[in-house]
Write a structure and sequence with these properties.
The protein has helices spanning about 35-50, 55-65, 70, 75-85, 90-105, 110-125, 135-145, 155-175, 175-185, and strands at about 5-15, 15-20, 20-25, 30-35. The protein is mainly alpha-helical. The strands form 2 sheets. The protein has a two-stranded antiparallel sheet with strand order 1-4. A two-stranded antiparallel sheet has the order 2-3.
């Protein structure tokens, strides 16, 4: 019998800091750890706690260029895209999209109402701190219904922002220094 070869644990450490009482993530730091199968399980369990993901970085990061779905389908891809959008001052797009993804999974009505209002005041309303770029008809529809939100309240807006990211930001991401640096790192490992 022989043990399986050491697997790469692709690890993203997110450092939180507080700015005006809000949680902010700084640039994710990528750390690769090589460990054997027994210790791997323990480490993977620990890693999840710290937002680390056991993944093959080579396979993973090259797949990001196949489609925006592949990129947004994993936490490390979301973080890389977020870092890129931050550099373009359009981070609100991914933050809104992620907020909508979480919103749609909400199970309780009180939580849904609180969350809908938070998303509305952070991203949707005119002069919101992270106001997203949607047409005024869509914005008006959300505003009309914000007092009686449902799980589909942000669907139209989320779709619009998704196509905006897919059309405008994603092609630039693929050519960006952020993504090229990640690819180079993966190739050198
Ligand atoms: C706003 O809501 C109405 C009624 O549901 C719908 O017919 C219309 O297409 C919506 N407008 C936009 C821009 O989504
Ligand atoms: C507004 O809310 C009503 C009642 O919940 C719902 O039937 C309608 O589809 C909603 N409209 C929009 C644009 O979300």
């Amino acid at each position: 019998m022989f043990s399986s070869p050491p697997k790469t644990v692709f690890c993203i450490l997110i450092f939180m800091c507080s700015i005006n009482g809000r949680r902010h993530t700084t640039t994710p730091i990528t750390v690769k750890v090589y460990i054997g199968p027994t210790r791997r399980t323990t480490l993977e369990k620990m890693a999840i706690k710290f937002c680390c993901f056991p993944k093959d970085p080579l396979e993973d990061t090259t797949a990001w260029s196949e489609s925006i779905d592949k990129l947004l389908g994993c936490k490390s891809g979301q973080l890389a895209f977020q870092e890129f959008l931050r550099s373009e001052y359009s981070e609100e797009n991914i933050l809104f999209w992620l907020a909508c993804e979480d919103y749609k999974k909400i199970k309780s009505t009180p939580e849904m109402i609180i969350s809908a209002n938070r998303i509305y005041s952070e991203f949707v309303q005119v002069e919101a701190p992270r106001q997203i770029n949607i047409d005024c008809g869509t914005r008006a529809n959300i505003t009309k219904n914000i007092s009686q939100p449902n799980l589909n309240s942000f669907d139209t807006a989320q779709r619009l922002i998704y196509s905006l990211m897919a059309r405008d930001c994603y092609p630039r991401f693929l050519k960006s220094e952020v993504y090229q640096r990640i690819l180079t790192k993966a190739n050198n490992s």
